[in-house]
């Protein structure tokens, strides 16, 4: 009898334990929704907040017969960005498309205008959006989608929404301009865009970013032309941006470099790259996309990609001397292979770049230091070892105090 009772008690304990396992699993952290669903959630949240804005109050009053219909409110969209890379990608383009489609379908008070300088005076609102990879203990990668609607006259963020999404099947391929750019594009303008898009409703948008919104619209026009392979028109527009008070930005100078290369203007391209380097040093950091053959310190074998590297190094050396800068040369690798091997390889690559720079200017020897980070600071993290994860094989030049 005692044996039967003991067996029964064990069975009950096992059943309870099994129930608890199932219950805890069911009550554990839920997986974020798919990208499309998350984009819809964020857009609907943004729209629910906008119903308190004048355009929607006017709509309600019209329905009640109190007042005639008010004017439609113009909205311009500064192209949405991947904040991890500072790039426009196929995925950010899809996010922008889904958000605008949803807004147009649900309400007609908003009139979407092209993001052009001539429309900034007509528009009342600025729409921005970002995608950010977030740390997660879940097996699937997670994105945070941020949307913000800013009143252009007051500079106040009037609505802001956030949603998490699974990164399943998201195409993070950068658009042509960002794929071709020689440098990591994150600067104070991109950082300001990101802060604005994450700012709670009622707060001011980032002043540095908003002050440069006219230049941003021209940069967007030029970049659209570049992506369409209309290089001569793109070059003219980038040069127009550069002549504006706030036009000296990494995106502008990189655009002049890229279009000059495409048009065979080698001397103009070198001058533009020198300005890219000088501006990067002014920010105390410059990330350059050097592609190496896998597992080696040899530059990528395809001359279409690596033929400009000698000129890049020459200008980096010259601008370093001109700035009398001391810097750490930090090598990075793709996320493929063993960590220890990548740590060693990234250090060798940084040392190789340092060697090339000191060959251009011997005075840089005591003012530079090579550091290897392996794949510990990956931006893309795909481990594909091709142009897709070129940012992971960058070499960064970080300005440090001279000692």
What attributes characterize this protein structure?
60s Ribosomal Protein L30, Chain: A; Rossmann fold; 3 domains; six-stranded mixed beta sheet; single chain; alpha/beta; 48% helix; 15 helices; 403 residues; four-stranded mixed beta sheet
Your description of this structure?
It is a single chain. This protein has 3 domains: 154 residues, Rossmann fold; 60 residues; 120 residues, 2-Layer Sandwich (60s Ribosomal Protein L30, Chain: A). Helix 2 packs across helix 4 and helix 9 runs antiparallel to helix 10. About 6% of the residues have low confidence. The termini are far apart. The radius of gyration is 26 Å and the shape is globular. The chain has 403 residues and is α/β, with parallel strands linked by helices. It has 15 helices and 10 strands.
């Amino acid at each position: 009898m005692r044996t039967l009772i003991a067996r029964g008690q064990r069975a009950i304990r096992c059943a309870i334990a099994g129930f608890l396992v199932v219950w805890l699993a069911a009550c554990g952290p839920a997986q974020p929704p798919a990208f499309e669903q998350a984009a819809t959630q964020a857009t609907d949240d943004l729209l629910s907040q906008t119903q308190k804005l004048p355009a929607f109050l006017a709509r309600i009053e019209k329905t009640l017969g109190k007042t005639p219909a008010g004017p439609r409110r113009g909205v311009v969209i500064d192209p949405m960005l991947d904040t991890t890379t500072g790039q426009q990608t196929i995925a950010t383009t899809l996010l922008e498309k889904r958000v605008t489609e949803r807004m147009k379908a649900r309400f007609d008070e908003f009139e979407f205008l092209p993001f052009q300088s001539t429309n900034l005076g007509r528009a009342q609102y600025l729409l921005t959006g970002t995608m950010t990879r977030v740390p997660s203990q879940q097996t699937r990668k997670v994105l945070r989608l941020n949307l913000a609607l800013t009143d252009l006259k007051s500079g106040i963020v009037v609505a802001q929404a956030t949603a998490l999404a699974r990164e399943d099947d998201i195409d993070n391929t950068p658009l042509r301009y960002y794929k071709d750019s020689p440098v990591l594009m994150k600067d104070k303008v991109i950082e300001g865009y990101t802060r604005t898009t994450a700012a709670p409703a009622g707060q001011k948008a980032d002043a540095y970013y908003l002050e440069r919104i006219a230049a941003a619209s021209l940069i967007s026009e030029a970049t659209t032309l570049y992506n369409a392979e209309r290089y001569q028109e793109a070059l003219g527009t980038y040069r127009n941006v550069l002549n504006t008070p706030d036009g000296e930005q990494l995106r502008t100078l990189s655009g002049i470099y890229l279009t000059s290369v495409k048009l065979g203007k080698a001397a103009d391209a070198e001058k533009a790259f020198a300005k890219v380097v000088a501006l990067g040093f002014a920010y105390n950091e410059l990330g350059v996309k050097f592609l190496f053959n896998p597992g080696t310190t040899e530059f990528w074998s395809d001359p279409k990609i690596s033929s400009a590297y000698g000129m890049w190094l020459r200008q980096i050396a010259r601008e370093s001397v001109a700035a009398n800068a001391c810097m750490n040369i930090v090598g990075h690798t793709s996320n493929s292979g063993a960590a220890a091997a990548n740590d060693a390889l990234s250090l060798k690559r940084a040392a190789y770049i340092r060697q090339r720079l000191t060959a251009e200017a011997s005075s840089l020897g005591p003012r530079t230091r090579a550091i290897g980070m392996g794949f510990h600071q990956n931006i893309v993290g795909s481990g594909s070892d091709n142009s897709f994860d070129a940012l992971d094989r960058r070499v960064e030049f970080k300005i440090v105090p001279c000692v």
